[in-house]
Amino acid sequence: MKFLIENIGCKVNSYDAQSVATLLENAGYERVFEDEAVDVAIVFTCAVTNIAAQKSRKLIRQIKKKNEDAILVVAGCYSQIESEVLKDIDIVVGSIHKTKILDYIEQFKKDHKPIRDIQKLENLSFEEATIDHFETQTRAYLKIQDGCNQFCSYCIIPYARGRERSMDPDHVLEEAKQIFKNHKEIVLTGIHTGRYGSEYHLTLADMIEKILDQSSDDIRLRISSIEMTEVDDKLISLMKKDNRIAKHFHIPLQAGSNEILKAMNRPYTCEEYYEKIQKIREEIPDISISTDLIVGFPGETDELFEKTVEFLKKCKFSFLHVFPFSLRSGTVAEKLEHPISPVVKKERVRRCLAISEELYKEYKTSWLNRTVDVLVEKTSENDSFGHSSNYLPVKINKKTNQGEFVEVVLKELDGEVLQGEVI
Fold first, then answer.
1. What is the DSSP letter of 2?
2. Among the four 152, 257, 310, 343, which has the fewest Cβ within 10 Å?
3. CA Rg value for the chain
4. Closest CA to 348 of 304, 295, 312
5. Among residues 345, 263, 261, which one has the least CA distance to residue 302?
């Protein structure tokens, strides 16, 4: 039987989708990527914003229309939060029990009765899956953590994913070992990656050290988004001394004024945030530090937004991911007063993206005439493309092997991409 998997959202969703694909392939199902008829269609949904929920609904409708005779499975955060609107779906699974999807498909094939598995997110353990490769990616994801205890006022994820929990350390090591047989780079990811290991009396840095101890020299570990409060001294020290750890931290800021950070229920002040990134740069001067930013949060006056603008310039991020505040039903922020108009939010996004473009150009230019190792992600007849350890986009001047590291000298900045010559 043929199956299709589509997913919306984060790296965690990509990992969950691949883990289910692996289960089905091991059971003899054939995964397809082209636009052809399938027997089973699976959609992994997102609910981080109302817009993400709308995109999930749209994708479900599109998949259902194209595959009218297929068994339709919908899973993930949107399923967990709004399962009541998915009454016409064959199989609906929430944020847990995704490892049961194969069993549910087999059951549905027998009795054709709709299946609903939406569990209360209480006293959860980590749902362990097994993956050894990603079919459509050069860079692999390894989900080592799930859930969140932070409860930022704008965020629905703690209600959609449940509380923090971590993959068993031995399973992490085995997964990493198997994935490294097929990929040179693994991105360690989770809903709150930096909180890994508390129930095992480990930190994220401890786990990274264990993975590196069992791994070869020809690999790279990358950390996905991590909170400022979770970048500890050991993690900085490990990154400084071991080049197998990608020299890039993505540390969400979300707002550049203490007033809005407090309203967001973020666990730091601007002063604490700046002190931490300065400490990182003192130890690792060339590191890339990028961030997430939400503009137009309720109560963000023009004066407070200007504080954010100045703080962004002060921090000198390598680049920014900028989002207009999007109201999410069921969050604390839904009830906050003084909403910002869409027109103002759009202009604030524009200004911050312009700052990002300027900062990124400055950071990329600082790397000219220097040597970097690039993981090759795409190749053509005459050139290749990939990213360096510090996530610089590099076009290489010759065809090389996809999935391998290539040492290049960065010769010029051509638009958004650095041009590299193979040494």
1. E
2. 343
3. 22
4. 295
5. 345
Torsional class of 147: left (φ above 0), alpha (ψ -120 to 50), beta (otherwise): left
Strand ranges inside 38-168, DSSP E: 40-45, 71-76, 91-93, 115-117, 140-143, 145-146, 165-166
DSSP-derived secondary structure letter, 236: H
Q: What CATH number belongs to 2-117?
A: 3.40.50.12160
Q: In whole angstroms, what is the distance from residue 48 CA to residue 51 CA? A: 8
Three-class SS state of 377 = strand
Spatial CA neighbour of 151 closest among 381, 331, 279:
331
Tokens encoding 419: 């041009």
229 closest CA partner among 205, 261, 194, 258: 194
The tokens for 418 are 């650095």
What span, in angstroms and rounded, lies between the C-alpha atoms of 328 and 177? Answer: 39
How confident is the prediction along the chain (423 residues), in pLDDT tens digits per residue? 999 999 888 899 999 999 999 999 999 999 998 778 899 999 999 988 888 888 999 999 999 999 989 999 999 999 999 888 898 999 999 999 999 999 999 999 999 999 999 988 888 899 998 899 998 899 999 999 999 999 999 999 999 999 999 999 999 999 999 999 999 999 999 999 999 999 999 999 999 999 999 999 999 999 999 999 999 999 999 999 999 999 999 999 999 999 999 999 999 999 999 999 999 999 999 999 999 999 999 999 999 999 999 999 999 999 999 999 988 888 999 899 999 999 999 999 999 999 999 999 999 999 999 999 999 999 999 999 999 999 999 999 999 999 999 999 999 999 999 999 998
Residue 314, SS3?
helix
Domain 123-246 annotated CATH 3.30.720.120: no
CATH superfamily label, 371-422: Nucleic acid-binding proteins (2.40.50.140)
Among candidates 332, 335, 408, which has minimal Cα distance to 376?
408
Tokens of 256: 């550049």
Instruction: Break the chain into its structural domains and give their ranges.
Output: 2-117, 123-246, 272-365, 371-422
CB of 146 within 8 A of CB of 12? yes
User: Distance between CA 107 and CA 105 in Å, rounded?
Assistant: 5
- Hey, what are 153's tokens? 């006022």
